[in-house]
Amino acid sequence: MAKFDNSFTDELRQRLSLVDVISRRVPLTKKGQNYWGCCPFHNEKTPSFSVSEEKGFYHCFGCGEHGDIISFVMKSENLDFIEAIKELADMAGLKMPEIKQKSSAQIEAEENYVKITERATQIYQYLLYQDVGKHALEYIKNRGFTDEMIKKYRIGYAPKNNIISTKFADIKRDKLTSTGLVRIGEYGPYDFFRDKLMFPIFNAHGQVVAFSGRSLDGSEPKYINTSDTELFHKRQTIFGFNFARDSIHRNNRSIVVEGQIDAIQMQVHGFGETVAPLGTSLTEDHIAILCKSNRNITFCFDGDNAGQKAAVRACTLVLPFLRDNSDVKFAFVTGGKDPDEILKTSGESAMRKIIDNATPLIDFLWESVNKNYLTNTPGGRAQAEKYLKNCISKITDKVFQNEIEQEYNQRKFNQWHKWKQQKYTPTIEMPDVDIMTINMIKSIVQTYPELGEKYMDFLISLNISFDDEIQKTELSLKDAEKFIVSFKLQRYIKSLMNEKSKLLSNIPENAGDDYRNKLKEIDENIIKANEKLELLLDINK
Length: 541
Hints:
Elements: H1 6-15, H2 18-23, E1 29-31, E2 34-37, E3 49-52, E4 57-60, E5 66-67, H3 69-77, H4 81-92, H5 104-128, H6 134-142, H7 147-152, E6 156-158, H8 163-167, H9 173-177, E7 182-185, E8 188-191, E9 196-202, E10 208-215, E11 223-225, E12 238-239, H10 241-251, E13 254-256, H11 260-268, E14 274-277, H12 284-293, E15 296-302, H13 305-318, E16 327-333, H14 339-345, H15 348-356, E17 359-360, H16 361-372, H17 378-393, H18 398-416, H19 435-447, H20 449-454, H21 456-461, H22 477-505, H23 513-538
Parallel strand pairs: 13-14, 13-15, 15-16
Antiparallel strand pairs: 1-2, 2-3, 3-4, 4-5, 6-9, 7-8, 9-10, 10-11, 12-14, 16-17
Helix pairs in contact: 3-4, 14-15, 17-18, 22-23
């Protein structure tokens, strides 16, 4: 059973947005870096209640109330600490752990863990600039890293021998192995990282909790990472986030790239808001952490198939976190290059152009569907419809979800059925349509694309272009459909009368039963159509 300690409350704060939780009770408006609203703890008309997502607390300048996400739930819902934790756990989708505070032994173990990883970092840093690390230093400098960058990110070198096992011989094995730096083999302890360029991995407090080691001899995998430990979980760790946090708030977005070196190079070349997943595919936990800081995310992946697949995965993961003020985009580095290479060969301006020209999520998803499904066939369209419907259902903001659905309905109507390319040859002459009716039909189709789908054959026969934007109708869905059906019936009746008029003006000399039966059939159809029209117009007048 998991233990209830500070790590669980830290995880709640990490996964949940303070703004999202408070905005359930208090309407908030963003001004500058903070959000403002009327204080829920005293009566006021002028907003003096400030919420800082970056700092993780709220403060009322009117009554002085101050606290974090847990205290807000306690005070606003009149709950005790445990009850508030349970409610927040439900919001975060986390299982409530056993309620048990950290023991002194646990606290001591965590402190020892950080002491070991900190000391190991210092050893690796030192060795990078010694003869044993000469080839590693040459490699990283050839990648464009300066001494200042190496120092800032505390990059080092793990030699081929068991340096950590030797240097930490005075440390108990269980404490050493708990950090993932050392493992126990048939012949005793041995270093997990050997002949690797070492990138320390920091927690939110700037403490080293793990390492990522890059191979220097061309062997695969290129990177190996510390296995999950008590203080480190790959699925919940974002490389470079501790350095990027301030820039994310300042630039009102985060940029996600594929690798550590890409993230570092982006950060030092003017894109301080850049981060990377660590040794694993992007996860829901990564997205939750990023969205807590800012819901504007630009994913920047390689333009190859792997990069495209990674982008589609990122798209599906981010959908539940979308809000109407989210700005999620997708950028791709093509030509077999990555951000590191672009920055070295073409400079910051070229990389900025790639980021600035990123594709909005709604367009990326639409393009992805059209690439992966044969939308020119009924079966392909059905498959694409199901995929889009599944994606849209993941958006939790129902109003926003409805807007996205309407947007895609419009695109399906305009693009999948290709109105301009379809030909329609009526068997009877159809009367012209006046401009007011055309505009009304356009307005209805813009507002209710599903009616366009339903009456597609008839609308095609009108030879109207639906590509141009027009003001949406104020008619209800029911009245809009009533308008189309009544117009369709009127048009049909008029065409029958035109056909009857032509027959009567050209009566053949030998007119017989066939001629009379044709006239009779037209009259009967006119009567039936008029009856339907009268019935339709009588309904819910």
